[in-house]
Structure formats: C-alpha cells, structure tokens
Amino acid sequence: MTVMAEPVTLTVNAVSMRFGGVQALDDVSFSARGAEVLGVMGPNGAGKTTLFNIISGVQRPTAGSVHLGEMRLTGRPVDRVAALGVTRTFQTPVMFWGLTVRESVCIALTACEFGGSYPPRADRALLPSGLGMPVRRRADKALRARADALLERVGLTRMGDRPTESLAFGEERLLELTRALAVDPRVLLLDEPLSGLNPDEVGEVLRLIRGARDAGIAVLLVEHAVGELLSVADRVVVLDYGRTIAEGPPAVVAADPTVIDAYIGDELE
Amino acid sequence: MTAALWQYILGGVVDGAIFALVAAGFVLIYQVTGIINLAQGEFVMIGGMTAAALTTGGMPLVGAAAIAVALAAAAGGLTYLLAIRPARGGTALTLLFITLGVDVALRGLALFVWGTNPYSLPPFSAGNAIVIFGGALPPQALWVLGTDALVFAALYLFFRHTRVGTAVRAAVANPPIASTFGIPLRTFAFGSFVVAAAIGGLGGVVITPIPGVQYDAGLTYGLAGFVSAVLGGIDSLPGALLGGFTLGIVEHVAAGLLSPGWDQGLGFLILLLVLVVRPQGLLGRAARRA
Predict the structure, then answer these.
(1) Burial class of A195 by CB neighbour count within 10 A (0 to 12, 13 to 18, 19+)
(2) Could you give the ipTM of this predicted complex?
(3) Which of A232, B1, B5, B146 has its CA 20 to 30 A from that of A132?
(4) pLDDT tens, A9-21?
C-alpha cells in the first residue's frame, strides 16, 4: 500500500433491511470517504453486521442502495463487489484449509486477475510456473516478494510456509487483515478486528488500520472495544435498533446523550 | 489359477482407468460446487457415441475425437447453465435430483439421436495384444492408460502450478472468503462442469474401441465413477485415481473368480467396508471446512 489509492466515497443510501417481522436496518444513510476511518458503533443487535453484509453484497437490502463513487454496488454478487474494490473481514477469522500462509496472501494479491473488471492481467494467470518459463518465473518471484513484504509487516514472515490452519488466533487475525489489504481494496470493512487479541496484537491491528487509511482506503470499522474504536476513528456513525442515532467526530459522539442512553448497561457506561 | 487371476487384474486395470476418469469428474464438480453430478456418466457416452457415429460416417478419428470432446464439454457447460445455475440456492438434495434429471434427459436425447443400435470404434493403433507376464492387454488399453496419465498430470499442474488453479483451491477451501477477494465462484463452477464433462468425453472416446458404446452406456460408467469417487474420497483427485483402479480390479477379479454376476455386488461391498472403516474414503479429508 505504498501507492496512495485514489480516494473514493462509499455511499449508503436509505438502506432498509427486514427479516420477516424484524427491521434490522431502517433507512440508514451515511457515507465513508477515502483516507478516513469510519467507526460504526451500536449495541448488540443494532444491525452492524447486517450493514456490512449489505455493503459487501452478501445480502440484498429490502430498500435503498449502496454506491461506490458513481457505481451502484447493490445487486452485484460478492465477487463483483470485491473486484470493484470493496473487501471485508469477518468476526471470526476464516482460513483456507490446505493452503500455506504465503499462498493465501498470494491468492489475495492475484485475485483481481480473475475478477475481470479491474486491471486485466489474466494473461499470466494460466501459465504454469515451475516449467522454466522465464516470464512466469520472474512474475512468481515478484509475487512471492510482495507476499513476503506484506507478511513481514505483521511479523508473520517465518510462518510463510506453514499451513494456515496451524496459526494461533491472533496470527489468524493478522493474516486475515493482511489478506484483505493484499486485495488492494478502496473500501475495507472490518468486523470486530480486535476481539480476542492480546494488547500487543491490538496495537498491531490499529497500526495496520491507520496505515490503510493513510494509503487512501476508506476503512469501516465495527468494534466492541469502544475506547480503541474512538481512538482510531476519524468519524463515527452510531446505530441503534437499525437506525442512525448519531454521526460525527468521536469526541462529539461519545458525549452525545442519545448515544450514552443507547449504551447504558453496555460498553460505554 | 494365478495366470487367470493376473489376467483378471489386467482387465480390471483397463476398466479402472476409465472409472478413474469419470471419478475425477465427480471430484472436480463436487470440490468446486459441492454438487454430486449424477449425469457424469452421460458425458462418457456422449464422447463415445459422437466419435463412433462420426467415424462410422467416414470422418477421420482425430477430427471425430475433437468434436466428441467438444460436444461433451458443451453438454457439461449447458448442464450448468440451464439446470444448475437457475436452481442455485437450492438444497443439496434438490440439486442432486436435478442432476439425476439431466442424466435421464441426456440418455433420452441420445436415444432420439442415435437409436438403440450399438456403435463401435476401431482401435487407434493396430497390433497384437500386449503380453505382460503372461497376461494380455489390448493395444487400446495403452491409449486409455495414457489418457489417464495425461489428464491427471494436467490436473496436478493446473491446481499446483497455475494461479487460476491456486485460486480454485482457495474457492474450494472457503467459498465465502474467496469471493470477498473477487474470486468469481460461478465462473469456476461453470468451468468445473465443462472440464469434468470434457474429461468424461475424452474417456468415452478412448475406451469405446474396447467395449463399444450405445445410448445407455452412461449409466454403468456413471455408477462406477461415483462408487470410485466415494471409495477414494469425494474431495480427492488422487483418491479418484486410486478408487477407480481399486474398483476396476475388484470387479474383474470378482467376476472372474466367483461369477460374472458378482462384479458390481462385490464392488459395492468394498465400498461399504471402506465407508464403515473410513467414512471419508481412502484418501479423503476427514473434516472439511471449519
């Protein structure tokens, strides 16, 4: 992420989501700009994960739409949304069985070659490596170097050849984030990236989040550790019962009586 | 006695080679889409029937074989686009029944196009039977075994040494995550049907000179391929190879030593035994996906 990506705005436009009788999201609108960390807060069940599912294309909203710049994302399948530059992590990090740590980063680095829309580099995709073709060997070496550089940044260099299922929980989180960054996204959705981490790992993840922001990525952060969220976020949106109840700079939002009310008995007390 | 046994084993190796190709098709589609495609045997029939019908009509073998494989691949692609894709989101059972429907439909179509007459294809190379330690193999057997070697080597190279292959492995390991990288799962699903059908079709072309072919030949191949795939491990390509040869040899030895009616029965008995002891199959992974 040394090159600053062209910042782009993600717009959530009057999104509502109803599951049977439950209104999970009710007319939610906000936008996230490139090069900013937007914290998404709310008590349990406020609709944060549903919101991420809708933005990333896993679920389709009952009403409203999500746009990336001028491009409508709603209605596109997950892989198209990802190819347009929106990727995400999950509450529980999920690993690729049977692949090594380095391979899983390499896949993320090259995934856009199969998406079609985003830089068309499919020419290299089908040539087998290891058959002595110099073009391919150079490309592979470069790819490996890029993967190793990303792994070094999170201190996982020595795990490169290990199977992904052998990692400890904190390492899985770091690998998951590295993978997401390797996709070279313009919008990154992080669903509780700090949960279950020790203080060192928390610092590491916060550093990565700031780095992503500085590279021009719009980072949307759902996190239960409110203190950390407020410290890293540039702006915060607060959801409660599927509605936006506050939006603004962290200090203002944290002092908002409506927000404190919504959190009574929860994390902010 | 031992000479006869050896001859049965050699016969089983030839059958095993075609079973392994069909099993590879089952494994490919299952790995990428999670679907058991019961129409897999029909692609062998389509390959064999097309090649046999075209050469009977006077076309040179190479051209007929190419058209046969292309037609089988097209049948696979259409199966996905017309029958599987519209039902995406259906349960595994729904999709299983859909493939059963496709199987019956393809057989019906073959009956309509080619009728009930058996077709045959001349062996690719002339020559006497090859004698190995006193057992005999028809020269065509080498073509079948060579096709196995080629197909499995190509699959190995694809999955281990190409970027698309690695991406397919990622999609197999974890579809939801792979799609958040922009890996197009549905394109891969389509591809798995096309490739599995092409492999089946190619198998049909090379095996047909030995037993001949007719419109309902796909049933036997499909069943044997399915048993081989489950025997070896439905999520393992090496398992398909092992399962195919194991089943082929067991069937031939059973038919030879006991009675011709015993071949499939004993094949299923072996399958049952393996599934009781190792439910994931000989080389399958015990528990997929966390």
Answers:
(1) middle
(2) 0.74
(3) B146
(4) 999 999 999 988 8
